[in-house]
Write a structure and sequence with these properties.
Blueprint: H1 12-40, H2 47-70, H3 77-90, H4 103-130, H5 139-169
Helix pairs in contact: 1-2, 1-3, 1-4, 2-5, 4-5
């Protein structure tokens, strides 16, 4: 009788490795985006907050690499490289303009960055749960990382709200929402037929 090969699924270590490498890819893209945003706002009101956020996000990525090393998890360079390239290609998105930055760029990039921070916080919380049984993980440091991610999210939301006010809500901004650009019903096809009698 021939033996039957027994196959097993991925180990806990393997799954954790995939999970943390996915988060490292996200951290790489997020760090690149934060750095680019800080650079594009030099001299602007948002320069200080964005520069601090970029430095913190870069440090978070470094902390993740340290944690991965402590757990014996290898970096999958192809995932990190793909995330880096993806962030660069994201700069080619038109945002309503072929050349240069669109006013919408700030708003969309802030929203992307905040989503990234929320995902990062979830990753820290996952590791914090594991720290209860894995002594290689520093629970105190993970608590600090979770708190820092929460603060980053608040700061990004404040910047996002400012961008909304500046780009979309400002009644003087050009665009279809500005009252002065509303079409006169008499100029529409049908010459305004169907309007209530005045």
């Amino acid at each position: 009788m021939t033996g039957t090969a027994i196959t097993t699924g991925p180990s806990r270590h393997d799954m954790l490795g995939v999970y943390l490498n996915d988060h490292l890819a996200g951290a790489t893209a997020g760090s690149e985006l934060a750095s680019r945003m800080a650079g594009s706002h030099r001299g602007a009101e948002e320069s200080g907050p964005l520069s601090r956020l970029a430095a913190e996000i870069a440090q978070d990525r470094s902390d993740l690499l340290t944690i991965m090393a402590s757990l014996g998890i290898y970096v999958r360079a192809y995932k990190v490289g793909a995330a880096w390239i993806g962030e660069k290609l994201g700069r080619l998105k038109f945002n309503g303009r072929i050349l240069g930055r669109s006013p919408l760029s700030d708003l969309e990039e802030l929203e992307m960055l905040r989503l990234g921070v929320e995902g990062k916080a979830a990753g820290w919380r996952t590791l914090r749960t594991l720290a209860d049984t894995d002594r290689r993980l520093d629970a105190g440091h993970l608590d600090e990382l979770i708190s820092r991610a929460s603060s980053q999210s608040v700061q990004l939301e404040e910047l996002r709200v400012r961008a909304v006010s500046r780009v979309i809500s400002n009644p003087s901004a050009p665009g279809p929402l500005a009252p002065e650009h509303a079409a006169d019903p008499k100029e529409l096809p049908g010459g305004g037929e169907g309007r209530a009698a005045e």
